Structures are given as structure tokens and as C-alpha cells.
Predict the structure.
Amino acid sequence: MAEGGPAWVAADWGTSHLRLWLMDAGGAVLRRIDAPCGMSRLERDGYEPALLALLEGVLPAQGHLPVICCGMAGAAQGWCEAPYREVPCPAAAAEGAVEPELEDPRLRVRILPGLCQKAPADVMRGEETQIAGVLLGSPDFDGVVCLPGTHTKWADVRNGEVAGFKTFMTGELFDLLPRHSILRHSAAGADWDEAAFEEAVAQALSVPHALMAGLFGLRAEAILNKASAGTCRARLSGLLIGSELAAARALWGGRPVKLVGEHKLAALYQKALVQAGGAAENLDSEITTLNGLRAAYRALEEQTS
Amino acid sequence: MAEGGPAWVAADWGTSHLRLWLMDAGGAVLRRIDAPCGMSRLERDGYEPALLALLEGVLPAQGHLPVICCGMAGAAQGWCEAPYREVPCPAAAAEGAVEPELEDPRLRVRILPGLCQKAPADVMRGEETQIAGVLLGSPDFDGVVCLPGTHTKWADVRNGEVAGFKTFMTGELFDLLPRHSILRHSAAGADWDEAAFEEAVAQALSVPHALMAGLFGLRAEAILNKASAGTCRARLSGLLIGSELAAARALWGGRPVKLVGEHKLAALYQKALVQAGGAAENLDSEITTLNGLRAAYRALEEQTS
């Protein structure tokens, strides 16, 4: 290994992006690399070259560099399928890791499996590693881990295990509707009206079916009452997140919630949860992912040593 | 007027398409013309040339050919704005018709206004003419006219007036989600599983928040249980239509419903309404539109004669 080079590499290989962290032997981050080579842009034989290109300068002259990878690289359409582990089971993701065959002997890659739930059918890939990261700091946590994002996950965590979970397409709807639906005329852009967000959350929490009944109203408010794009956009977000909270209340009601997601989005969920009578703590998403990958690396090294 | 030429032209100028019907003096259809020149593809000065190109062969040597037009041609972004009439008001759409200035003296165009509702904010353009068409055959109808489509409208009709209405984006969601969301991997194509549709309608009618909670499950069912594209697609439709019916129950519960829409879609709504304990009659959409335009033509001719 080059002096000062990484001891191992933590990797989060998502649908659209790959994030790498070069780690030293003590678990500190030497460097972070972001690349737009997610699963959706790669063929199966494109993963190893993509990784080699990004790590070329830090590959060891002798031996190999371990890469611990969570996310979509383990999907059936990814690099090497890591079959889902079925809940209830520990979040810790080293068990069931798969190792793709590589051309280059200077790399050794392990891909962590996701979780599945048979009924109601649900799947996750990557978030299980974040949940393991949460539990690294709070091994006795009994509550809910909510991971807001394109597909927001709510995981019921008890006895050190993931007992069950539920996915909502809220983030994807918030991305799609202002781009592809009639709301593109009323809710595009990046403006934001915080009061409109809070009102819409309250409406979604108190009125059943507020989302279905309210979507076209966003457009009509813009036509008839000149509601601004920022107001429409914040109302749409509030209707979506409020409806998600109403639908997920059986999971989080009366329990502590730990939120792990991009900062602004997690703050919206936290605010809405408080409006709904819940309580949530925000955790840093990157630290949590890294903690989960650190735990997996440690467990895999113990297996092989 | 050329011998055997039309006495007037009925026009439905929508967002994506223009439909014209050449009418004889007795109100019979001589010919139907479909053209892909909807509002979304035209600048303001493109409407007259588009119409002239389609009607060139039937324009009169002397006098003018009346064109009665409903739909998006009257929108603020359309040809000539026909300001919304506010409910409660009669559906009959001749009142408030606007006349764009034309270059060619052989045409005389009247554009019928849509309806608006101030609170909750809602708008329609074109459907008011179909409602007027329904009332032409049933002037004393007291009930609900449901117009399924991209933006499904539910109109509360009583005392010969539209008392109020509500729009749902159900059709647009059903179009968007299998094309642009993660469901494109599971619900694309045209296959259909009728039993899955019925189950999903039942679920949406009985479980609050079934839509929000169920969307990602369609994808997970495909991954874990190899649910077919036809099953996912029919479930998505059932979740959407069932959720719409649940959200609109205050409108249609205990009242007769007349459905006006594309045949297959109207049949799905009818089936779902029966499942939900309602009763609906299906009316032919084209006949209904034409009846509304006939009524408007008659009223406008009386005004000008």
C-alpha cells in the first residue's frame, strides 16, 4: 500500500451516483469522491472499470484494497446480486455480503445485501446500512428510523433488529409532479413559502384524502388567485409529507423517531412530525452511512482474519 | 355556401387535439375531423390558420361559416380568453362566449367560456359544454355528472345549474407514474389484470391512505413476487380510482351519477362506483359534447337573429 494511502474504501453505490470515502486504518476519512456513475448508467461489466478509474492513484503495489459497498450495486440489475435478507433481522449488513469476481487483483470488493419484507411487500438497498449506522451509536434504540429521500423508508427498530419497514414514494412524486404534470405551470422552480408548507401539512393530517383532493387545486389556485410558484411548491410538499405522516402514523405514533436524510428535507420532515404530535431527532446522513459501512468493514475483517 | 356544405362547425379545442364536426342545418354530423393541433402546440396567431387549413374545402363563397368552440382555445394561454363563469350557474355555455378577431371573413368563431369555483379553487374548460349536453337530454337531472379523463371532474348538478365541482388528477397520475417513476420497471405496457383492479379498488375504499402507502408496494411486489406488468398496472389504476371515489364520496354518495368519458375508462369508473355502493349510467362522450355544442349554437343564433 502506498504510504499514507487508504486502508480501505467505503462506497455507497446508488441509482444515479457513486460516493466513495477513502478511509485510514483508524476509520477516519482521507478523501471523499463523488461520481455520476450510478447503477442506471452502468452495464454489469462497467462497475470494475468505473471503480478502477476513480481509485487508480491509491491502489496498493502489493496486496489489495478492500472496498465495502452498500446500495444498488447489489441489485439484480446491478454489479453482483446480493440477495435481500428478510426482516425481522439485524440491520448490520455484513452478513450476506457478496464478492464480485474481479479482473484486477489490487481490489477486493464486498457488496452488502439489502432487506426485504414479504408482506406487505417492501425492499430497501443502502438504507439498512444507515440503520446499522444509527444503531452503532444507539445499540438499544427502540423506535423508528425514518430515511427521507426519493423513496422514504420508515423502519421499525426494536431489540437491535429491524422488525419491519414501509416505503413511500413521496420524494419521487415531489420531483415528478412539478416537472411532468400540469403543475409544471404552477409549481416549478425553487421558491418556497414556509407558511404554505405548514398549512398544507395541517390539512393533510386532518382531512382524509387531502392529497388526491388537493393536487389539482394547486393549479386552480395559481390560475384563479395568482398563487406563486413558491406557494404551490411548498403546498405540494406539505400535502405529500403530511399525507405520508398520516399514512405512517401506526409506525411512528408514540415512539421516538430518528431522521436520517439530506439536511433540508430532514428538517421538513422534523417540522411536520412535530406538527403531527411526534418527536424526531435529526442525524447527519453521511456520518450515519459511514458508521454503517465502518461496522460492516470491521465485521468482514474479523470474518477473514 | 357550397351546396351540401356544412351549416356550422362544432369544435372541441383541447390541450393536445382539435376535433371538428361539420354540421348540417338540422344538427346532423356531415364529417368529423381530428387534428393534433391542440393549445399546447399553437401560438396565439396559429389558431386561425390551423382552422382555415382544415376547413378550406368547405368555406362558403359568400357569407361566413359559424364555428362554435369549447375547450382550451378560450384559456388565457389560448386563442382568445373567454373568462370563466363562476358557479353556481347554468352549465349552458353560450353566455359569455367570446369572438376572436379574424383575418378571413369566411369564418365566424365563438369560443365558449369555462367554469370556475372560488373556494375550493377549481376550474374547467370544455366539460361545462358536456354537462350542458347531459342536461339537454335530462333537463331536470339532480345528481352528479362525472367526466373521467386526464383531469376527472365531478359536477354537482341541481336545479338545472352546476352548484359546484371538484377536479382530480387521477388520469394524469396514471399516465405519469408508469412512464416517469420507478413504476416504469413494473407497470409499463398495456396488459391488464381485472381481478387486481377490483382488489385495489376495494383496498383504496376501505383503507385510509391506501394510495400513498401502496405505490411503492407495486414495485416491491414485482421484485419479490414477480407480479406481472398487467397486475401492477391494474392495481395502480384501482388504487388511484378507488382513492378518488373515497375522496369524492361526499359528492356522489346517495345520488345518481352520469359518467361521460372515453368508453374503457368510463367503464372502469362505473365498475368501481358499483363496488363502492354507488350507481352510475354511462353516456357517450362524443354525443354529449355535440349536444352541448348544438345547444350553444342554437342559443347564439337566437341572440344574433
Notes: Chain A is about 40% helix and 25% strand. Chain A touches chain B through 41 residues (CB under 8 Å). The CA atoms of residues 299 and 305 of chain A lie 10 Å apart.
